[in-house]
Amino acid sequence: MALDKWIAVVFLTVAVAYGYSAFTYPLLPFELNMVFLPNTMPMALSVIAIILCLIVILSPKPVTTDSGSDIDLSNLGDYKVTQTLILVAAMLAYALALRPVGFLASTVLFLVATGWILGERRLHIMIPVALMGAGVVWFLVQQALGIFLRPLPWFLS
Amino acid sequence: MFDGIMLGVTAAFSLTNLTMVVAGCLIGTFIGMLPGLGPMSIIAIMIPVAIKIGDPSAALILLAGVYYGAIFGGSTSSILINAPGVAGTVATSFDGYPMARMGKAGKALAIAAIASFCGGTVGAILLIGFAPALSSVALLFHSAEYFALMIVGLSAIAAFAGEGMVVKALLMTVMGLIMATVGESALFNAPRFTMGVQDLQSGFSFITLAMALFALPEALFLVMDPARAKQDDADGQIKDLKITRAEARAIAPVIARQSIQGFLIGVMPGAGATIASFLGYAVERNIASEEEQKEFGKGSIKGLAAPEAANNAACTGSFVPLLTLGIPGSGTTAILLGALIALNVNPGPRLMIDNPTIFWSVIISMYIGNVVLIILNLPLIPYIAKLLTIPRNYLIPFILFFTLIGAYIGQNNATELLILVGLGVGATILRFANYPLAPLLIGFILGGMMEDNFARAVNLTDGIQFMYQRPMTLTLLIIGVALIALPIWRRRRSRLSVADGD
Questions:
Q1: Which residue of B has its CA nearest to A112?
Q2: A55 and A104 together in one domain
Q3: CB under 8 Å to B476, separation ≥6 — which residues?
């Protein structure tokens, strides 16, 4: 089965679960008399979604004709999948570190680390660039716009 | 009226007000380039500054400058790194980003600037001429018509979808609508479908979803496929702004049509720049010739010019209900309304009579803002486009960083970033399977509005009979159904004729 059909199966599961929670939605007592309920549109949507999923899954030949997409799954081996996964992990780590470690340190670390993963070895350029980028954005966001970003690690602020 | 225009011209051309326009445009452009800070947030941030100025005309002129600048800045990030920070520039990235990838970033930015300029200019002229008359027509649009308009917008998605992709595009639209129902809405009393996750109580945020669907997959593809990042800068094309005569001839009618259509959509309260840009794109794609249709989505200059012109014209149009009726048609104009009231100006039918200086100088300064914007930005474009020639090892970390921080500063919430990365990986897989991602985002943006208007119409009429009782609603709904049925029917017919040919 092609990947797009597997994804349609995943969507079907989501739609069924969503439909279940829409049809069993706990209405508040006074809502029962309303014409339009919180679950009116969700119920309709889940039914439509299930129908569309079934069309994608059951349509005999692959629904996609060649749409001229420049991304091809068949040469996945040529792609740098491992590197990409490491980058995704780095983003997750950055998200979790942003608050406790502080904006400046975690951003510089993130920029240098992702540069390193991508193959940049000239740290004497990368580190100043990262420091400058983090500093400029922090200054813009915190000082000019007044949106709070904790700049320093938890033990310093 | 002529006296009024002269009054506005004299007021707008004073040194203070000209400085305000220039300052506003510059601030807007540069902050607007950061994905995650759209016109709404920038104007909100600038309000204290504007109030400190004291003079209502000068303050409003500054804010209008910021507004225009921010919209142009938003198009820049859509074109260069596929990161639309505002719903109104999502359609810009459909063709703007492919152009940038072909090494024509400079040209794409120039077309965007020129289309925006024309859209804004036409909008300003129409605003001067028709503001009072249009405001009464806009009031004829009730929630039933808005609902029908959303349906047209959503079914226009079938027009975005390529050959044989209609079902998938519709499926993605419905998924977007489903995501829009998560969290609290204005209509009901409790958050829905949050799966017990506290951070979903206010629903998915637009910025997070836009970054996850467009910017993040693109950055990940740049990592996976190093050849993709290579730009042909051998002949210095990337900085080249030149638009050939043939290209100018191709986009001129597009810009003219979309400026007017965008303005009219912008006038209706609640529709705004987002719908104007999507509809503009869909309309131009449908009326283009067959060969040109294949170009759409792959770097068509028409596909870039249409949403940009429509978007800017609609922004100008949205000032009509604000200035003449005191009804804000969009989030941004709602914030402007707040600023006006803080400055002791009451927008409404009496504004034109009581405060003609304010009314006219704002309109004239919109036009000046457009001129200033294009004078400031055309010379800057080569440098902005040059950003793409930064080596890959530096560019990708910064794209990822801006994507993440754009979602973070909106919410100040680290969970948002985890959601962003999760959705981004999901979107990447969807791209592998050839699912179009734009319909999901469009469904998400229009979903909330659609449900609100539908509920209001149902509550008003105690049922769904408004669908056939109101002629305008019925017409719009028929157009919507036709938009979905047409591509399916056309495909079936072409398949039959192929079979006959065998």
A1: B397
A2: no
A3: B145, B148, B149, B151, B152
Provide the residue type at B442 as one letter. Answer: I
Say which amino acid occupies A82.
Answer: T
Cβ atoms of B58 and B363 closer than 8 Å = no
Same domain, A92 and A49: no
For residue A97, give Cα distances in angstroms to A126, B69, B399, B401. 20, 34, 19, 13
**B17-71, pLDDT tens digit by residue?**
888 888 888 888 877 777 666 777 777 777 777 777 778 778 888 888 888 888 8
Asked if the structure places residue A71 within a domain, the reply is no
Q: Specify which residues B192 forms β-bridges with.
A: B183
Q: Are residues A103 and A139 in the same domain?
A: yes
CA distance B417 to B133: 47
**CA end-to-end span of chain B, whole Å?**
68
B132 CA: distance to closest CA in chain A (Å): 35
Assess contact for B301 and B112: CB atoms under 8 A.
no
Enter the pTM of the model: 0.76
**ipTM of the complex in this document:** 0.86
B183: which strand partners?
A: B192
Q: Chain A contacts of B455, Cβ < 8 Å?
A: 36, 40
Structure tokens at A119: 């193959």
Tell which residue, B464, B445, B452, has the closest CA to residue B177: B445
Nearest residue of A to residue B184, measured between CA atoms:
A38
Instruction: Give the closest-approach CA distance of B350 to chain A in angstroms.
Output: 35
* A136 and A111 together in one domain: yes
Q: Does B404 sit within 8 Å of A91, measured CB to CB?
A: yes
Q: Into how many domains does chain A fold? A: 2
Instruction: Give B257-308 as a 3 state SS string.
Output: HHHHHHHHHHHCCCCHHHHHHHHHHHHHHHHCCHHHHHHCCCCCHHHHHHHH
Asked if residue A151 belongs to a domain, the reply is no
Please provide residue B204's backbone torsions phi and psi, each rounded to the nearest 5 degrees. -70, 145
Best CA proximity match to B457, nearest among A41, A23, A24: A41
A105 lies in a domain? yes
The answer to whether position A72 is within a domain reads no
Q: How many residues does chain B have?
A: 502
Question: How distant is the Cα of B463 from the closest Cα of chain A, in angstroms?
Answer: 7
Classify B183 as helix, strand or coil.
strand
Which residues in chain A are closer than 8 Å to B223, comparing Cβ atoms?
80, 83-84, 87, 118
Query: For B117-160, how does the pLDDT look when each residue is reduced to its tens digit (9 = 90+)?
Result: 888 888 888 887 777 676 666 667 778 888 887 888 788 766 66
H or E segment at B429?
Answer: helix B414-432
Instruction: Identify whether residues A47 and A87 lie together within a single domain.
Output: no
DSSP state letters, B234-247: TT-GGG-----HHH
A93 lies in the same domain as A52 = no
B439 Cβ contact list (under 8 Å, min separation 6): B157, B160, B161, B169, B170, B172, B173, B176
Residue A129 structural domain: 81-144
pLDDT, one tens digit per residue, over A53-89 is 998 888 776 544 444 455 555 566 667 888 889 999 9
> If you count residue pairs, one on A and one on B, with CB atoms under 8 Å apart, how many are there?
180
Question: Who contacts B42 (Cβ-Cβ below 8 Å, separation ≥6)?
Answer: B27, B28, B31, B32, B66, B70
Distance between CA B176 and CA B167 in Å, rounded?
14
> Do both A85 and A140 map to the same domain?
yes
Say whether A36 and B408 touch across the interface (CB within 8 A).
no
Nearest residue of A to residue B218 by CA position? A71
Q: How many CB atoms lie within 10 A of CB B244?
A: 10
Could you give the angle at which helices A103-117 and A81-101 cross, rounded to 10 degrees? 170
